[in-house]
Specification:
The chain is mainly alpha-helical and 267 residues long. It contains seven helices and no strands. Helix 2 packs antiparallel against helix 3, helix 4 runs antiparallel to helix 5 and helix 5 packs antiparallel against helix 6. The N and C termini lie far apart (136 Å).
Length: 267
């Protein structure tokens, strides 16, 4: 009696993948500290508790040597873990992209985004969450199209090499093989052209979303600035009003003094 075993979807990240990513993110630096610090700390404690001068000097030298040796070993382990982490993430991204990249999976492909796309995404996420969702969806389309183009180019190169080898056969079987390979190349070329069209459309949508987000942000900032400018023009600042009142009072006092002086001169 056969039993079917349910397998998880290969194109979706699991909780195990997220946990593994967190572990591999901190593991290199934890290994560097774990390899560098314990032995020097032990020798330093022995150095501080040593009674004889010669013994203390020996412990101090051993602490320095163990620190240098441990740091070197830690660097080697960290480098190995970083290489393993890069390869593991590459395999994970290939698995996630096998059925198309979704908006929720874009976070795993941040290394494949351009610096301008990362900056725009961060800015839009802060200012407009709805546009950020649309931006993520479009980024997912752009990443999927880019991966299809890259893979199709590699496959076209492989087919080209097979065609060149088939031409050396010169037999009937070789001719049939060439026809099949040429058909494969044409199919891959069509796939690449279609992916290029989707890529151009995705890039256009990205620019539209960026322009829309920037337009809304600039409009809100401009409206606020114009409101402040209008209030500043319709109402003089309090300091200017006080200065004007003081100037008027001084002018009136000066006029009264002048009038008093003229009356005195007439008498």
């Amino acid at each position: 009696m056969s039993q079917s075993i349910a397998k998880p979807a290969t194109g979706k990240p699991s909780t195990k993948d997220a946990a593994m990513a967190r572990i591999l993110k901190f593991a290199p630096w934890a290994s560097l500290l774990a390899a560098s610090l314990p032995a020097p700390v032990v020798f330093l404690v022995l150095f501080l508790t040593a009674q004889a001068t010669d013994t203390a000097a020996l412990y101090l030298v051993l602490a320095g040597l163990s620190l240098a040796l441990g740091f070197g070993v830690g660097l080697l382990i960290a480098a190995i873990l970083l290489i393993f982490r890069r390869r593991w993430l590459s395999r994970l991204r290939d698995r996630l992209a096998s059925d198309g990249i979704t908006a929720n999976e874009v976070v795993w492909f941040r290394s494949e985004l351009t610096s301008a796309e990362r900056a725009s995404l961060a800015e839009i996420e802060e200012t407009n969450p709805l546009l950020a969702d649309a931006y993520l969806e479009t980024l997912a389309s752009r990443l999927t199209a880019s991966r299809i183009i890259s893979r199709s180019r590699k496959e076209i190169l492989k087919v080209e090499r097979r065609i060149n080898r088939a031409r050396t056969l010169g037999a009937v079987d070789g001719t049939s093989l060439q026809e099949d390979l040429l058909a494969d190349r044409e199919r891959l070329e069509q796939l690449r052209r279609r992916a290029n069209e989707h890529l151009n459309q995705a890039r256009t949508r990205l620019q539209i979303i960026e322009a829309t987000a920037s337009r809304k942000l600039n409009q809100s900032e401009t409206d606020l600035m114009m409101q402040r400018l209008g209030s500043a023009q319709t109402q003089l600042p309090l300091v200017l009003e006080i200065a004007q009142l003081e100037q008027q009072a001084i002018q009136e006092a000066q006029n009264q003094i002048n009038d008093t002086s003229l009356e005195s001169d007439r008498r």
